[in-house]
Amino acid sequence: MNPSAALFHKDYHELPKETKEEMRQLLQRLMELTGANAGGHSVFHDDMFVWFRNLFFTTDPKFDEACGSLDFVLRARLWRLYTLCWACVQSLRHEGSIVDIGTYDGKALEVVLRYAQPKRLVMAYDFFDEPPEESRKRDHGPELWEKVKERLKPWDAVVHKGDVTKFLWTFPQKIAFCQIDLNDAEAESKVFPAVYERMTPGGIVVFDDYGFARYRNSALAHQKYLEGKEQILELPTGQGLFIKARDTLHAETGTMPSSPRRYGRRGLPFTITLRQDRASPINL
Ligand SMILES: C[S@@+](CC[C@H](N)C(=O)[O-])C[C@H]1O[C@@H](n2cnc3c(N)ncnc32)[C@H](O)[C@@H]1O
């Protein structure tokens, strides 16, 4: 599966017309010179240009099959999509559900589920209709929720419609894999701590916008929450990759964070669960 090139990043559209045209021509020429997106060593998509690479994801037959006849827009985000597929498969080694926060039309999640074939609870969250302006896309509207439910039916996905920050209590008790893609720092900063608390060790979160300057405030909010805990890796795709650790020593002091602990008779520490989450309701 070869990527497609697109310049649809919002920041690009805000550039002066002449600058946009110059950039387009320059990139076009670079693509011609390197044979980008033609099955070689170079690709231009996902707001990045790379060359002299292996690009294994472009020749993974399993990924190809999961993608099916992928539309142009998703092929312009192919490496990001592959990151999600990889992360979901890795996380299946650990206990917990799959949670997608900011699902939009569900097409990306559908590819991930086809690739990973999880036998897990899958939960998806979005406004579907009337999103905030920053995250509005072409297919948002009153019919989108039904369409997404239909699309995700093969995985019995539970698809929540509405402001996810009001539904944090519906998150599954154990999360193995989660994508967060809300394009909204305030909402993401409420969502991530609730996800973090429920993640099983080894579980993975992919932040879609972590590396994009436009969403810097989301990244800063996540960094602040994670002070003294595990850190997020900024990927060249613009995503952020987070892996929940088994037990988190404070990075600088090498001591355990001051979370409530009890000690057994031999002094061996074991963590106590502070609160029982309510069971996730099915459909709202
Ligand atoms: C960039 S889009 C997600 C794209 C999607 N992850 C994909 O791969 O195609 C961001 C989505 O977040 C949703 N969103 C933003 N804030 C939200 C909130 N507070 N609650 C629920 N959904 C929200 C928007 O409706 C929008 O569909």
Helix and strand composition category: alpha/beta
Shape verdict = globular
Task: Please bin the fraction of helical residues.
Answer: 25-40%
Strand fraction equals: 15-25%
The CATH H-level superfamily of the largest domain is: Vaccinia Virus protein VP39
* H/E element order: HHEEHHHEHEHEEHEHEEEE
Short characterization:
With about 280 residues, the chain is α/β, with parallel strands linked by helices. It contains nine helices and eleven strands.
Written account of the structure:
The chain has 284 residues and is an alpha/beta fold. It has nine helices and eleven strands. The protein has helices spanning 10-13, 17-34, 61-67, 72-75, 78-91, 107-116, 144-151, 185-198, 216-225, and strands at residues 43-45, 48-50, 97-101, 122-126, 158-161, 175-180, 199-207, 233-234, 240-243, 261-263, 269-271. The strands form three sheets. The chain has a seven-stranded mixed β-sheet, sandwiched between helices. Strands 1-2 form a two-stranded antiparallel sheet. A hairpin with a 5-residue loop joins β10 and β11 (269-271). α3 (61-67) packs across α6, α5 crosses α6 and α8 runs parallel beside α9. The radius of gyration is 20 Å and the shape is globular. 36% of the residues are buried. The structure holds S-adenosylmethionine. S-adenosylmethionine is lined by residues 102-104, 108, 125-127, 131-132, 135, 163-165, 181-184, 187, 208. The site of S-adenosylmethionine has 19 residues, from β4.
